[in-house]
Amino acid sequence: MSRLLIVSNRLPVTVHADQGDVSVVPSAGGLVTALRGPHERHGGLWLGWPGDLAQLTEEQRREVEERLDQLGAVPVHLTSAEVSRYYDGFSNSVLWPLFHYLVEKLHLDARQDWESYREVNERFADAIASRYRPGDRVWIHDYQLTLVPAMLRRRIPDARIGFFLHIPFPAAEVFRILPWREQVLRGMLGADVVGFHTTAYRYHFVYSAARVLGLDPDLETLAYEGRRVRLGAYPVSIDVDEFVRLARDEEVRAEARRIRESAKGRKIVLGVDRLDYTKGIPRRMLAIERFLEREPELRSKVRFIQLAVPTREKVDAYADFRRVVNELVGRINGSYGTLDDIPIHFLHRSMPMAGVVALYLAADVMMVTPLRDGMNLVCKEYVASRIDDTGALVLSEFAGAAAELIEALQVNPHDIDAVASTIQRALVMSPSEQRVRMQALRRRVVTHDAHRWSHRFLNDLERASGAAPAVGAV
Ligand code: ADP
Ligand code: G6P
Fold it and tell me: Nearest 10 degrees: CA dihedral of 86, 88, 91, 94?
């Protein structure tokens, strides 16, 4: 029976150990959100890093491993040196900023981090090879594991291998900055199918492969080392039914009412992001400040809520960034707060999905204004949750989702004045305009959901040439 082996750096759950207490909590982020459904439906294995288990006693470790086993999760362990070099270092201080066009955040000398990245990618390839059965389909994910497809191809030449990149693939002029550009391209080209969120990212990849490796540029298929590598654009999405279910849930609706009541008649403008410097939070705060400055009569009529989930806290750029956000929020609340209220309610924590959906239901305006984002699922979650077709979405044109969600109020997040005006426009949008826009957005999100995303990718993988046919494929 053909199984689906999902491989990503992060498992759908993360183990946290704190002074003897151990908890296994759902992981945050778009990748995990999108892959939960396919993993549950296909019932195969999910290989990835479970978090740091070093502090656990033998017994705690056994319990955690049992729990992972029940979830079909296979742990690939990392030492603390590897977490620091492969994860914090090469993945999140080199590839992440470079692929999001934030060249000034690049680590200067990353040779040792690169070595660790290579070694950990080899370890993932070993872990897959040791679990692999003929006929399995292997689906490798994201920038932390770009070398794994080629490494696995060397171990199992006829394996059926897919690779999906969840972040942007940058323009060749930016990608070529990477000293290890050739290795990264060759690593990804080990797959039979390489998937991106948008046709623009696919184009950048093809052009980079032509410039760096001298391959014949073709948007659909690259001829590489005697194989044909299929390239596709598959916009990732969410499990819409799950959001509709939560949006109808009586407890979630009661929580949304409570949030609205506590805003005392003010309209609610919401942001929900990992606290990542790509998400455009400081510029969003500056736009809010500009809006408050320009619209004195609206000051007492709006409440801004920013929910920010802690992320990658050991990476310097993230710690510096947290300070910047805290200072901005403090400054704006200091200038525009009154004895009754403050304009920005900033919550730095993770929240169960039911709580996030209650916020989506309470929000009149949703702001999703990343500087760059591979796709961004928060905007799709907001749209899926607005089952009564109300609300307004302000969306950055630099999110992958902008290519699909064309009825949103699209903004350039660098243009503070324009974002401030768009906040105002969203707040006064008539109910009929809200309905027309939201219905069109909902139609698109409902038809292009996560199920369709994985189905399209896996279908292409099934048909991909250059691999042996799968046995009893689903
Ligand atoms: P990224 O993958 O870069 O984090 P996405 O927008 O694609 O960005 O996905 C973010 C995911 O994390 C969404 O499913 C969103 O609901 C979830 N999320 C974001 N902030 C929080 C939070 N504070 N608490 C819980 N979940 C959150
Ligand atoms: C983005 C990346 C994922 C990553 C997630 C959370 O969605 O594309 O690969 O898992 O952010 O980041 P973290 O570093 O906590 O896994």
Answer: -120
Q: Is the CB of residue 372 below 6 angstroms from any atom belonging to ligand 2?
A: no
- Whether the CB-CB separation of 99 and 143 falls below 8 Å is answered with yes
How many A from CA of 31 to the centre of ligand 2?
6
- Residues 148 and 140 sit within 8 Å (Cβ to Cβ): yes
How far apart are alpha carbons 370 and 279 in whole angstroms?
A: 4
Beta strands 13-18; 21-26: pairing state = antiparallel
């969306």: which residue's tokens?
Answer: 395
Q: Write the CB contacts of 82 (distance below 8 Å, at least 6 apart in sequence).
A: 116, 119, 120
> Model ipTM?
0.98
Residue nearest atom 9 in ligand 1 by C-alpha distance: 30
Q: Whose CA is nearest to atom 12 of ligand 2?
A: 29
Assigned token pair, 457: 């990718």
* pLDDT per residue as tens digits for the range 89-138: 999 999 999 999 999 999 878 999 999 999 999 999 999 999 999 999 99
Q: Which residue has the tokens 């809010």?
A: 288
